[in-house]
Design a protein that fits this description.
By secondary structure, this protein is an alpha+beta fold. It has 3 helices and 5 strands, in the order βαααββββ. The protein has one domain: Ribosomal Protein L22, Chain A (Alpha-Beta Complex), CATH 3.90.470. Strand 3 and strand 4 form a beta hairpin. Helix 2 runs antiparallel to helix 3. The longest helix is centred in the middle third of the chain and has 24 residues.
């Protein structure tokens, strides 16, 4: 069984977020939470909250299905960072010119799985 959490319009560039996300891809939940909690980048805090939301979503799905799984077996199945909307601003420059400032954003999607494929098999 798997569950996902999506956080949209995060006010940092996708490149900065991908630096953090690449460290947790495919890892067990406990290890990924440890990495994100102690990482100094600001993107790690946002990713940690989104990962906790995905874990909570998975626990709710498992509880509603009446199954019992070990939380130590949860792992990150898929993580992706997509480009969000770009806000364009103008900054004055020397000699009457203007420079364009692009304030980037991103969308973060985390999919967590418990390793059981019972939900994916169709009869």
């Amino acid at each position: 069984m798997e569950a996902r959490a999506i956080k949209k319009h995060i006010p940092s560039s996708p490149v900065k977020m991908r630096l953090v996300i690449d460290m947790i891809r495919g890892k067990k939940i406990a290890e990924a939470l440890g990495i994100l909690h102690f990482h100094p980048k600001a993107a790690a805090a946002i990713a940690e909250l989104t990962l906790k939301s995905a874990i909570s979503n998975l626990k709710n799905k498992v509880r509603e299905a009446g199954e019992h799984t070990n939380e130590d077996e949860y792992f990150i199945k898929e993580v992706k960072v997509d480009v969000g909307p770009v806000i364009k601003r103008i900054m004055p420059a020397p000699m009457g010119r203007a420079f364009r400032i692009r304030k980037r954003s991103n969308h973060l999607t985390i999919v967590v799985s418990d390793g059981n494929n019972s939900n994916n098999v169709k009869e």
